[in-house]
Amino acid sequence: MLRRSLVLSLAAAAALSWAAGPSSQAQAQWKPDKPITIIVPWAAGGSTDQVTRLAAVEIEKALNQKVVIVNQGGASGSIGTKNALAAPRDGYTWTAGAAKDLGTYVVSGLLDTKIADWRMYLSVINVSVLGANPQLPYKSANDLISAMKAKPGQISVATAGVNSSGHAAIEAFTRALGLQYKHVTYDGGNPAVIAVVSGEAEITTQLAVEQANMIRAKRLNPLAVLSDRPLELDGYGTVPPITKDVPSYRPDANYFGIFVPKDVPAPVLAELDRIWTQVVPKSETMKKYAVTNGAVFAPVHGDDAVKAAMPAIRSTAWQLHDAGKSKVAPDTVGIPKP
After folding, report:
1. If one looks up domain 129-244 in CATH, what number appears?
2. Ranges in the chain annotated CATH 3.40.190.10
3. What burial class does residue 215 get, using C-beta atoms within 10 Å of its C-beta: 0-12 exposed, 13-18 middle, 19+ buried?
4. pLDDT tens-digit readout, 90-145
5. What DSSP designation does 77 have?
6. How many angstroms separate the CA atoms of 194 and 11, rounded?
7. Which tens digits make up the pLDDT trace of 41-87?
8. Inter-CA distances, 146 with 8, 152, 200, Å
9. What is the CATH number of domain 27-125+253-333?
């Protein structure tokens, strides 16, 4: 009788557990049986490519499975992101980039997707730098500001395109001062930086991680970091904050990471949650990368990632809208005005 009661109790417990959904233990048991693909929707060598490849190494070790990085640049990152959305929802195809880009594709009309469609696994905060070709006469942010005032719309600024971090940075900078500029776009941050190094463009506002090596090699002159804090860059020294010359500039944290469609199997997300809780925060390689390249190591995922990224998403969305570059009003897609 006791044995029969025990069996019935265990059966009842199992039924209740099944009704409540897969247990966290079951969800954490995803063991991929083939390589995982991360589509980096920007050119090789840029900020997204750099940090995604480092994160991929940690994921490979945690899952004991190969992670393949595929660069699919174009249309400010929306092409590669669209391809990740179009892939089978089996948990084997992810994408990456800046959270603010992902959150504003729908506003710019580049791609019909929202933050709510994804689970975000963020790793670093990146900052933009006003980088100039060293052959030009600009030695400070004030020199550049004076030139822009003297030649409205003529100073060329290279970025990775509308909706990119570099574009958001130059828009915020010029709007704060009522300036105009000539926008020159490329298929990634690295090509935009190289364009300034070669003299094809005068200025770039791409991220410090994309400019760091050229700054150390004295092939780019960093006029200011677009932040309210100075940037300490290994092998170079201190880059002054833009607020030294433009007190009205108020930057938002620009988070970068990996994005996985929310409707993949739950065990995939549970395992990634575990990796972002237990593995990534302990990565000495990723910490060193951030310190060396002028980024902030700040792993966060899930609802906390949405909360952390939303200020930059809101600012960028309304910046696009106020500049007449939006296809959809942000408040109609759930992005309230800051």
Report:
1. 3.40.190.10
2. 129-244
3. buried
4. 999 999 999 999 999 999 999 999 999 999 999 999 999 999 999 999 999 999 99
5. G
6. 65
7. 999 999 999 999 999 999 999 999 999 999 999 999 999 999 999 99
8. 82, 10, 21
9. 3.40.190.150
